[in-house]
Amino acid sequence: MKNTFLYLLLILGAWLQACQKPEDVAPPSKLLPQDKMVSVLVNIHILEAQVDASALPSDSARALFLQQKKELFKRYGVTDSSFRQSYRYYAVHDKDLDDIYKIVIDSLGKREQKLGVSPDAL
Questions:
Q1: HSE on the CB side for 103, CA within 13 Å?
Q2: Most buried of 10, 103, 109, 122, CB within 10 angstroms?
């Protein structure tokens, strides 16, 4: 699920970029700042890993993920709509999304190191 989600995000970003030019897309009224976007994405990827590790049937895992994601958004004061619109905006501005994901990947790597988890073990 983790790898599938990342691939889907990359494909979605490429598709959105092909559809519109960055200058054609105005920022949404509730654009999440990059630092908040990073925090939310880090926690979404951690949540995905936890759900993957739960070994639940796929429909139960999906329901758990969606429910936990809803709680995560609530904790950050973010709506699903504002997250999607912000992600779309950053995806169209691919340099912004690249910058965001560099920080996300770095943050997740540091957490793995702190926990003593090797990426190969995943």
A1: 15
A2: 103
Output the pLDDT for position 18.
57
The residues near 82 (Cβ < 8 Å, ≥ 6 apart) are 28, 30, 31, 32
> Is residue 121 included in any domain, yes or no?
no
Q: How many residues does the chain have?
A: 122
Side chain identity at 15, as an amino acid letter? W
Total structural domains in the chain? 1
Q: Which of 47, 51, 34, 46 minimizes the C-alpha distance to 101?
A: 34
For residue 47, how far is the Cα from the chain centroid?
Answer: 10
Q: What is the pTM of this model?
A: 0.73
Is 90 a domain residue?
yes
